[in-house]
Amino acid sequence: DTAVSQTPKYLVTQMGNDKSIKCEQNLGHDTMYWYKQDSKKFLKIMFSYNNKELIINETVPNRFSPKSPDKAHLNLHINSLELGDSAVYFCASSLAGGDTQYFGPGTRLTVL
Amino acid sequence: AQSVTQLDSQVPVFEEAPVELRCNYSSSVSVYLFWYVQYPNQGLQLLLKYLSGSTLVKSINGFEAEFNKSQTSFHLRKPSVHISDTAEYFCAVSDGYNNDMRFGAGTRLTVKP
To answer: Are A97 and B101 a contacting pair at CB < 8 A?
Structure first.
C-alpha cells in the first residue's frame, strides 16, 4: 500500500495553462507539505498544512495555490504556468512536531 | 530559522571504500536532524534521524551519523560502500515544533566498481 501518492507522475503542458497535482496520504498524519526540487536537486518547501490549516507559506508566486479538502489530501493548483515552473514537485506528510516526513514519488512538471 | 550546509556537492568513491558526507547546521533552538536518500527518479526516503538521546544513530543498511552539538554537525558515514549506495543524500534540520524542515543542497554519492 502506497503511503503518500501523487498524481500525475509526469505532466507536460504549455505556458499559460492551469494545472493541478493531487496528493493523498494514508498514514493518518495531520500535516502535509509541498516541495519543489529544481534541476540542481535543490529542495525547497513551498507550503505546509496542519489539519487543513495553512502553516508555512514560503515566498511562492500567488499563481500557486494549495487546497486541502481534508487531512488526507493536499492538492496543488498552478495558474498561468511559466517555463520556470518546470521542476519535480514532491508532496510529503508527517505527524505534528517536526519528526520524520514521508515523501511521495514526485510529479515531474515540464512547461513548454 | 534553521539552515543546513552540505559541504560537498559530489563525492565519488570506489566500492568497499569508506565514505563521509558532511553536514553542518545552524539553529538558535534545539533541533532534530535527518539524513534522507533519493535514488534516481524516486522520492526521498528517511535514512536515519537524531531526535534526542544517544548522539550516534544508525541505519539498517550500515550508515551512521553522529550529532555533534559543539561543532553543529551531523556527518554521515559508512565504513564500506556498495554500488547500490549510489544516490543523492540530503541532510535536513527541523526545529521540532512547527514542522518547518530545511534541507541542504544535497550530496551526490557515486560508487564506482
So the answer is: no
